[in-house]
Structures are given as C-alpha cells and as structure tokens.
Amino acid sequence: MTSIDRFVWTTEGWGPALRCGRLGDVADHFFTTRQLWLRGESEDEDWRRVAAAIGVSPPRLLRLTQVHGNSVFVFRGRQVPSVVVPGPDGTPTFDGQAWPEADIAVTDDPTVALAIQVADCVPLLLADALTGAIAAVHAGWRGTAAGAARAAVTALTHEFGARPDRLVVVMGPSIGPCCYVVGDELVDAFRAGGFSREIERWFTRDDGGGLRLDVRAANRDQLIASGVAAAAIHAADLCTACRPDLFPSYRRDGPGTGRIAAVIRSRGAARSSR
Fold this sequence. Notes:
Radius of gyration: 18 Å
Number of strands: 17
Largest sheet: 6 strands, mixed
Number of domains: 1
Structural class: alpha+beta
Helix content: 10-25%
C-alpha cells in the first residue's frame, strides 16, 4: 500500500498496519486495521498476533482497563507496580496482575510493549530517543477534556527524565471533525477542564447548526502547550468514520464494532557514544 505523508502501510500477518517513519527511528510501533477485530471470539488470538508483531510474548504486552480519563500507569522494569492488584479468576492480567485502570501507560523498559485500543478516540504514541521512555495514550473527548496528552508529557518528564522538546508524537487514525457532531454539553466539559480560551478553535458550527469537535486539534494544541515541538507531532489524518474499508468506528457502527490497537515498544536509551 502507499505511504501517507510521513506514514507507511506495512503488511503484517493479519493484513495492513500503519506506521510513522519519524517515530520508527525512535520506537517500534504500529496501528492495526479492521482485519483484527480485537473483540469477541477471536480476541485472544488477535492480541497474540499483536504481541508477536511487536516482538514480545503476550504476557509482556501491557494493556489497560480504559476509563476515559487522564490517569497514568507507570511501569518500571520487572518491578510490580503498587497500583496494580491481582484480579479475580478470569480477570485479564499483565504479568500475573490485573490490568490497571488508566488511559495512559508509560515505561522505559524495552522488554515490554504498551497497547491501547480505540474505535474513534485519538490514539497517541510518544517517545524520547535519549531516555528510551515511551507512552501510549487513549484520548477520547473525555480524556482530551481532562488533559490526557498533557498528563502523558508530564509523566514522561517526571518519571523518566524525558524532555518535551525531544519527544516524537504520533496521532493515529481517529474520528475527524468531518464526522464528529457532538452536543453542547461537551463545550461545558472542556471549559470545566480549563480550556475556555480554546473552545472556538476546537468547536465549530456546520451549515446545519451542528456542533463539530476537532479532537485531533485539541490534542495537538495540548501537546504544543506542554512543550512538544509542533514539527515533532505527526498526525495520520485518517477519519475512522469515513473509512469502513480500513477502520472500525463506534460512531458509525455502534458499540459492537471492533477496535484499533495502538502499540509501541521502546528501543532502549540512546547509546552514550551517539
């Protein structure tokens, strides 16, 4: 398949995956497509294929119980994080522990991969080449209103010594303002999150009076305000709702639709000789 700006389609065992060349120099990563449903009867097998494609065993693929907020899960090596507690029988686990409730995962451990899943929300992948620190972020409108992108940059900085101006960030496929008609209550939610001055940039009225949210622009602006260089933010600009041939979409298909996985793995800290 053809490349899209700085993005390239690669062929995996299940079909196409999307990668960004600028991030690929810093961290291995990809975004899956609708060929992997990641739900239902094939879910376990689909996630095994995701783990294999990023080069880890399934127990080393760190996933989250996503709660549409800005909470951060920090993983350090093989240390068992104190915020993760064993779940009951049948609860999905990561290295024998229950998946943490969070929408952001950060680590600098190259032996694990981070994964989040979306079906219209913005998937963000961040990496710092010098420290090897990485993050995966699930940013729906609630997480965006809560400043999830900003929280990820802060966590990488405070926990692993990354610098915002060194970060490379990729925004994967998500619903675009072309299809994201929302209610006026979202404006109130963003104001409550401290984004009153940005409302006019992120929300617009269409010719029919519908309110549209550009959730990609909201995340991009938050990253820039956090110190990330604008030139280091790369957006796929593919609308999940517009492309049923490539992506599942909650808005288009309803709650039974599949999910896109956004996956990243650190290449480790840069060599001192560089």
